[in-house]
Amino acid sequence: MKSFWKYLLLRNIAKNWLEGVHYAVFGLGDSGYQKYNFVAKKLDRRISDLGATAVVERGLGDDQHPSGYEGALDPWMSSLWSMLYQINPKFFPNGPDFVISDTKLINQPKFQITYHEIDKVDLQSSSAPGLDHVQMQTGRARSMSPGKVSHIKNIPDCFLKMIKNQPLCRAGCGKDVRHFEFEFVSSIIEYGVGDVLEVLPGQDPAAVDAFLQCCNLNPESLITVHPIGMESRHRDAEGNDYKVPIKLKTFVELTMDIASASPRRYFFEVMSYFATAEHEKERLQYFASPEGRDDLYQYNQKERRTVLEVLEDFPSVQMPFEWLVQLVPPLKTRAFSISSSPSAHPNQVHLTVNVVSWTTPFKRKRTGLCSTWLAGLDPQDGVYIPAWFCKGSLPPPPPSIPLVLVGPGTGCAPFRGFVEERAIQDMSGSAAPIMLFFGCRNQENDFLYKDFWLSHAQNSGPLSIARGGGFYVAFSRDQPQKVYVQHKMREQSQRVWNLLVEGASIYVSGSSTKMPSDVMSALEEIISKEAGVSRETAVLQLRRLEKDGRYHVEAWS
Which first-to-last residue range defines the signal peptide (predicted)? Predict the structure, then answer.
C-alpha cells in the first residue's frame, strides 16, 4: 500500500492518467480518533484528481457503530451492486439482488493443519529449561498463527517477571487501577520514556479446556499450521521453522482468543454450514444476513459474547479446526504506555493499568482479558510474561525543553516516566520545568501517584512553581460542578502561555472520547486570550506547533 500511495503522488503523473478507470473506496475507521478514515478519504480524493470515476460515493466504516463496519458496509455494497448493474447488466444476469441459495457454497479454509505422530517428532525442545521452553513455544505458535501482526515479531523481545502488583485506588471505590513493576528475566531491552510495552496475556485454563471439549479437539495432538499453498516453505520471515510441531492446546492458548473477543459476522455464516440442527442453522443464517444484522448486534457485540459462549449456544455445530484457526479472533498483544524511566529503574519496566470490568445490558459481568490477568498474578509465582517494546506517539523530550503535560486518569502513566527522567537530568544540570495537569474523580479514591507528584512539586523539583512548572489536579466529582483538566488549564492560562513562549512542547495522553478535543479547544482559547489574537489565528498557531513537533497526543478508545 505504501508503494502504491507513493506512486500515486509522483509529480510526473498526468492529471487525466486514470481517465476511464472506474473505482470504489470503502474505508475501515474508528470515529473515536481525530483522523477518522483519513486514508480512505485521501485515497478517494487522489484517485478522483487523477481522472478516475467513482462508481459510488465512498463508504466510511466506523468501528464505533453498534454493528461495527457492517453498519455502513451493507448499504454501501447494495448500492455498489446496483450501480454496477446499471453500468453493465451482464455483470448480474439475474439482477443485483439475486442471492445464490446453495447452502453448500462455501470457500475452502485458507489454512491447513497437519497432524504428526508423536514417535516421529523430535521432542528435544520440550525438555528445554523453563524459560527457553516458553520462548520456543511462544515463537513457534505465533509464527504459525493466521493473526500475525506485521509490526510485532513472533518471538518476544524479552520475557518479564512481575515483582510488584500494587492497587492505586481506595478499596471499594468502584475503580481498580494497578501499578505493576516487572524485571527483565531474559535479555534487557533498552527503552525510552514515552515508549509502549506490548504484553501477550495468558488465558483462563478452564476456558481453554472447555473450548477443546466443546470442539472435540485432542489437546495432546501435535500439529503444524500453514497457509494453503505454503506447504513447501519451511521457514517464515524471521527464520522460525514452520515444520516443527506444537501441541494443539499450546497453539490455542497462545494464538486464539476464545474467551474474550467477539466473533465477526462471517463466523456465524460459516457456523451455519456445519450446524446439524435445523433451528440452529436457520438462526445462524439469519444472523449472517443483512436483515439479521441488528439482532446479531444485540446478541453478539452488545453482550460481548465470546467465541466459546457462541459455540456453546449452538451445540450442533462441529466446525473443523482449520476453520476455527482461521475465524477465531487472534489473541492479540495489549499495548500499555510505560510509566517508568530506565534511568531511574535499571533492569525494570513499570506499567499503570486500569483493570477493566463492566456489565452488559443483560447484567452479565465482563472483564478485560489482559488487565484482569495481570491483576490476578502473584509476584511470588514467577510467571514468564512475553513482551515487546515499541515506540509510542510521545517522543522523549530533550532536557532543555519546558513541558506542558495533560494526563487525566491512567493518561498520566507516561508522564510519571517523564518526571522521573527529568529529576535525574536535574542532577547533572538544571533541566527545564514541567507543568502537569492531572485529573481524577475524587481526591480520596483515585488520586493516582499522589505522593510521587507532590514530592516532585516541592523543593525546586521538576514540577515546582519555583522552577516555572506546576502541578494542578482536577477532581471531577468532589464538587457539584464537574471540573476537568481543561478547566484547570484555563485557570493557569498565563502560566501555560509563558511556557509556550519559552518554547515548551505539549503532550496530551488519555481517553480518545472527548478529552483531546476539549484540551485542544482550551489551548486555542489560551493562545487567543494571552496573545491577543483571533480564535482562527490561535488554531493556525496550534497547527504550526503540531507541524513543528511540539504538540503530541496519545489517545485510546
Answer: none
Domain boundaries, the chain: 1-99, 403-555
Tell me the C-alpha distance between 466 and 383, whole Å. Answer: 45
- CB contact at 8 A, 450 and 424: no
Q: How much is the mean pLDDT over the chain?
A: 91
Give me the pLDDT at residue 63, please.
85
State the cell numbers at 311.
Answer: 459455540
Strands 385-390 and 196-199: antiparallel
The reported pLDDT for the residue numbered 101 is 59
Single-letter amino acid, residue 13: I
Integer angstrom CA distances of residue 382 from 141, 182, 506, 527: 22, 10, 39, 51
Residue 25 in contact with residue 47, Cβ under 8 Å? yes
**What CA–CA distances, in Å, run from 18 to 22, 38, 42, 399, 469?**
9, 22, 16, 50, 55
Per-residue confidence band for 328, with pLDDT thresholds at 50, 70 and 90: very high
CB 353 within 8 A of CB 177: yes
Q: Residue 132 is placed in which grid cell?
A: 527457553
The pLDDT, as a whole number, for residue 1 is 87
Fold match, 1-99 / 403-555: yes
Query: In terms of Cα–Cα distance, which of 304, 303, 405, 411 is closest to 353?
Result: 411
For residues 219 and 113, give the distance between their C-alpha atoms in angstroms, rounded to a whole number.
14
- Amino acid letter, 486: Q
Residue 268 φ/ψ, nearest 5 degrees: -70, -35
User: CA angle, 282 as apex, 279 and 288 as ends, to 5°?
Assistant: 140
Number of helical (H) and strand (E) elements in the chain, helices listed first: 18, 20
Fold classification of 1-99 is Rossmann fold (3.40.50)
* Whether 341 contacts 417, CB under 8 Å: yes
pLDDT at position 129 over 80: no
Distances (CA, A) of 199 to 192, 363, 528: 17, 29, 43
Q: How far apart are CA 179 and CA 164, in angstroms?
A: 8
> What is the rounded distance in angstroms from the CA atom of residue 225 to the CA atom of residue 113?
5
Whether the full predicted model's pTM is greater than 0.90, yes or no, is no
Query: What's the mean pLDDT in 331-351?
Result: 96
The pLDDT value given to residue 476: 94
